[in-house]
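Inputs:
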Amino acid sequence: MNKTIDFYFDFSSPYSYFAANKIDAIADANGRSVNWKPILLGPVFKATGGASPISFPQKGPYSVHDCARMARFMDLSWKMPDPFPIFSVAAARAFYWVNDKDPDQARLLAKSLFHRLFGEGQDITSEEAVGDVASALHVDRDELRAGMADPEIKQRLKDETAQAIERGVFGAPYFFVDGEGFWGSDRMWMVKKWLQRGGW
Amino acid sequence: MNKTIDFYFDFSSPYSYFAANKIDAIADANGRSVNWKPILLGPVFKATGGASPISFPQKGPYSVHDCARMARFMDLSWKMPDPFPIFSVAAARAFYWVNDKDPDQARLLAKSLFHRLFGEGQDITSEEAVGDVASALHVDRDELRAGMADPEIKQRLKDETAQAIERGVFGAPYFFVDGEGFWGSDRMWMVKKWLQRGGW
């Protein structure tokens, strides 16, 4: 069986930000590694009838408040970006391009992008902004720009999103552990128990 | 400030079942008491644009599976009722009627009703079924039947549901602690931390 944990997330998902700051530690403590897979929630919601919590009049403000509270309890910096949700295509493409060369660096890039968006409330929508974050990690800006425009990278993001939908993903973050799906940053305690017990 | 925790739930909500089996212990350990308030999610969803997870093609089966898993991790018995969701008006009215006389007994009744529905997969829709569960707790069946038909009790359920909506409730379980709202059985760890820290 594949011992890797698949971690599906969207850079525009605040609960993915929380998960991104915790899932590796949970995996490491249990002898597992994590396969990070950015996807686009837009097509996922379209395929599954879902919607961002932010789009509901009561659940929206609650979620914003819940995120601030969650960040406080997790000791993470937090600033709600405005506008929100954001267009996360550039960030996701950059991730896959870097990931092909160096998964560790791609993970650092993902955490930096998440931090810039939800820790500092700064935009990561444009290729410029993504380039800024990547440059700070010594990724070559011109190569990255070419990589983000590569048809293969563009297709990769589509394929990963399509595959996620096929596997039953309807929101983010979403984890697969030993073939078992877990939805939400608030199921990470269960992922941990699953790993510790080796199942149910 | 009101030191009581308001616990809004619907007897037809499996995550409310999980919360009902845990919230009193969390409150007790922190010197608080819990005010149990059954409501009807139908009007709540109508007012807030929400829907039961079960109504979505992917989230529905996931939720059913997640409930079975949650019950296993919480050491609670579990059997998914069919049909589901169920009509929880009789159960909620019975609760309020018993609660006016004896809140402890009402809580026992609530737990017994939840157990019958989600622990045994048996119906609690009819007044008959609710009467069966109540009788086992030595509630007089005839008095209960009259109580459930009392216009004041009927109105109480409507009022509590309307008040919940006014307070921002958009799903169940939903908790208010020191005026702070928490949605979902997966926020009980946060309720606990809130109580321990006296806030954020």
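Chain B touches chain A at residues 48-50, 56-59, 61-62, 66, 69-70, 72-73, 168-171, 181, 183-184, 186-187, 189-190, 193, 200 (CB under 8 Å). Flag for discussion at group meeting.
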